[in-house]
Amino acid sequence: MIWNDMDRQIAINNKYIGIIQTNKLLSHIIQVPNIQRIRDNAKITEIVAYQQSCLQKTGACNFLGVINIHFCKETGDLYIVDGQHRFESIKIISQMISFPVSIEIVVVDTLEQLRENYNMINKNTPLPEFPDTIDKSIPEKVAMYFHDKYPAIWSKNSRARRPHIYFNFFQEALGVLTERLQIKSAISLQQIIEEHNTKISQWSIDQYPDSKNVSENIIKKCKDTGFYLGIYNHISDDYRYEWVKEIIHIETGIVVKKAKSEPKKRIGVPGKVRSDSWNRHVGSDKGEVLCLCCRETTITALNFEAGHVLSVANGGTTDVDNIRPICSGCNKSMSTTSMDQYIQTYYPKNVDFFKTTTYLEPNKKAPKKWSLFS
C-alpha cells in the first residue's frame, strides 16, 4: 500500500502521516472523486511558477501542509481529497526532479465516509451545487472551457458586478441546462452556450434584459471580452439566470414562467455573524464608531444593524463578507439597493472610505489566505 512507500510515518487510528518521495507518490493511481471541486488551471500554473522559483533560489520546493489522500476499502482506490492543485503541480515539477512531500493517508470503509470527510475539510469553501441526476463532469468541463477562453470575465466573489460572473453560479447554471435538456456530452452543451452568446452579441441595447440598467461600460466590457452572458443579473431561483430560461425555450419550446412563490419569512443575521462583522470591519477593541455608510450616526458594538452589501433579494449572502455594521436609518433607507450604490447616491464623499478602508488599523486587518495553495 501507499503508506509502505513513506520514508517516515506515524500512524494515528485510521491515518498515516509522513514523508514520501514524489516519484513513489506518482507511481500510485490516485483518482479525483466526483465531489471534488473543479480544477483551476491558472492556480496550478501559479503554484508551479512559485515552486520553480524556490528551486532556483534554495534548491528545494516549498510545498506547505499535507496533501490529503483517502484510501476507500469499498472501491479499493485512492482519492485526492484535499490539495488537488498542489498535487497537479507536483506532477509537473516531478518531470524534472523527485523530491519529498508531506502526505496524510486516511483509510475509510465507504465512499460516503469519504464524502463526509471532504465536506468537513471544505465546509468553508463555497462549491457549486449540481443536480444529483447529471454527470457533473459535463458542466465542469464546459465551465473550464469558457473559463480559459474568456479569462477576464470571471469573479470569485458572489457579489460580482455585471458583466463579471461568479464562477460557481455559472457552473450551477450549466448544471441546470444539463439536467433540463438531458445533455449527454460536454461538446453539446458547449455548442449551445456558444450559439446563445453569439446571438446575444448581435442584439441592440433595447433587446438586453434589464436594458435600462445596462450601461455603455458593461457593453464595452462584453465586446472587449467577447462574452455577453454577463449582461444578465444573477437571480435567486432554480435557473440562476434568465439566459438559462431562454436557452430552454429555444431548445424545447417550453416557456419557463416565473414561479409564484409564497412570501418567505426573512431570516435574520445570526448573532455570531453580527459580532464577527463588527470585529472584522470595525475592530474588537472599538466600542463606538460612526456608521460605515453615512459616517454621521454613531453606532456601538451593542447597538448597530447588520446591513447587506448586496441584498438577499439580489442574490446576496448572509455571511461576514457581505455584512457591514451600519446605522438603522441607512439599513432601512437602502432597502434592496446595494450598499455601495446607496453610498454613491446619497453620501458620495464616503465612497472611497467604504471601498478602501475600515476602522481597523493596518496591523489589525484579518490576514489574507495565501492564494497559491488549494
Automatic annotation (TrEMBL):
Residues 291-333 form the HNH domain. Gene3D superfamilies: 1.10.30.50. CDD domains: HNHc (cd00085). One of its GO terms (molecular function) is endonuclease activity. This is HNH domain-containing protein.
